[in-house]
Amino acid sequence: MASLRLAIVIFVGTVVIARPTFGAEEPAPPLAKVLERARAESKPVLLEFGAVWCVPCRFLEKELESQEIRDSLRGFVFQKYDVDRGEGSKAAATYHVQTFPTLLLIDAAGAELLRSQGYQPGMLKDWLGKASIAGTSEDQVKAALAKSPNDTQLLWNLVGRARTRGDSAKVRELLARIEAADKSPHHDEAARAAWARLEDDLRGRIQQSLQPLLADYVQKYPAQGGRALKLLAAAGASRDQLEKAFARVINQTDSAALNELVYDALDTGALDAALTAAEKQVHKFPTANSYDSLAEVYNYRGDKEHAVATEEKALASHPAPQEEKPMRANLERFRKGQRLPDATKPTLASLFPSERRPMNLPPEFALRRLLQTEAMRVAEPCRSKAPKDVDEIYVRIRVGTTPRIERVELLEPSASPEFRKCIEKAIREIAVPADSQPTTTVVALLPRQEKMKQLMEQMMKAVGESRSD
What are the residue boundaries of the structural domains of the chain, listed by start? Predict the structure, then answer.
């Protein structure tokens, strides 16, 4: 699992934290929809990445509620993403977000302009002021940079714009300026810029050497060549080279691997190869799934009529009960001409440690995190009614198919009826995300202040011993 860094703030004593909004809302839209809205409104995009279990994220949320900040946000298309859920996980992976909370300013084309990682009280107002400048035209950013030539945030802004244009020479020039401009004690920005230049060099060298090696592999071993195709695309192969490589592999494939080839071809833009693979699969294996894949190919090619007709044929081919619902959803999507939201272009990013994707945890893990975090918070008013000689109390929570909390079971024999009623009422008020799946989990409640103090002392002692070593 990729290492996920969290900007942690430790508070001693009782802290009342505003109800977190991450995870309690409707599922966030795909990034493509957010960018579409930004283009329609001619505004830059401000993305907030957080999670229900992230304490600093809650304090940032509290600042975002002030009227002054709300007024500032009107200049952006603002979208909040929970990194543990659906589209939030995908968007976090796209921009390699590993510290929470993260604020990210991007333009309507998706290019990164400005980033803030972690949380410090009162930082939001000043950062949004910078974002307002960074989200304007490139000429205005350059004008601001002329007044503050060592402002690394503005220089990073121009790096993002140059990358979008594919101007690698300008990117290198700007990265060198950032490295020279960073006079801070730890040289964090200089190191980041130097690493970015190193990565660019590595990408270029890897792509240059990989293309002929991968093409040769597909030529020699077409029956096993499927493993090389997406990597060949990531290495910068042309559309014509990809179509030919896919055609060679598809010609030698008669197994269920054809379906994987269909979607690999769609991901790489080899649409002719995708059609060939899908048609061959239908001929060899005329199942509902095969027709579903062929319909997807027609949809990608902009052939709505054939996409709809083929998906109707898939539904008429007696799909398994668990397959019918997604196929009907696909049919509606094809009627609207919408592509798959999770289709991604292959890249070499996984070869670079700083760009590894965060683990996309199953939905039930995200829900359990939410329940563990929220149960502790909502149970706080019940503390005075808790049994006096118990350090920790456990409760079993079951979420149903609605989704909502169906059952709360307090696992403490000595608890009074009054305490049980208080806990059950509090936990049933937890807002469950609309896309949650049925799950049951056990969480701990109400650790005693004395125990918390003891644990804190033990932790600080361990830290001290670690430093002395």
Answer: 5-135, 221-336, 363-468
| CA–CA dist 409, 394 (Å, integer) | 9
Q: How many angstroms separate the CA atoms of 1 and 361, rounded?
A: 10
- Angle, helices 86-94/31-41, rounded to nearest 10 degrees: 70
CATH classification (class only), 5-135: alpha beta
CA 324 – CA 306 distance, rounded (Å): 19
Please, which residues have CB within 8 angstroms of residue 134's CB and are 6 or more apart in sequence? Answer: 44, 105, 113, 114, 141, 153, 154, 157
| List of residues 6+ apart from 231 with CB closer than 8 A | 210, 214, 346, 348
Q: With cut-offs at 50, 70 and 90, classify the pLDDT of residue 281.
A: very high
Backbone angles phi, psi at 409, to 5 degrees: -125, 110
Phi, psi of 417, deg, nearest 5: -55, -35
DSSP-derived 3-state class of residue 81: strand
Return the CATH superfamily for domain 221-336: Tetratricopeptide repeat domain (1.25.40.10)
**Position of tokens 């090696």?**
213
Reported confidence tier of residue 453, pLDDT bands at 50, 70, 90: low
* CB-based contacts of 227, cutoff 8 Å, min separation 6: none
pTM of the model: 0.54
Residue type, 70: R
Report the run of H or E that residue 422 belongs to, with start and end: helix 417-428
Non-local CB neighbours of 329 within 8 Å, separated by 6+ positions: none
Rounded to the nearest 5°, which phi and psi values hold at 349?
-60, -35
pLDDT for 9 equals 35
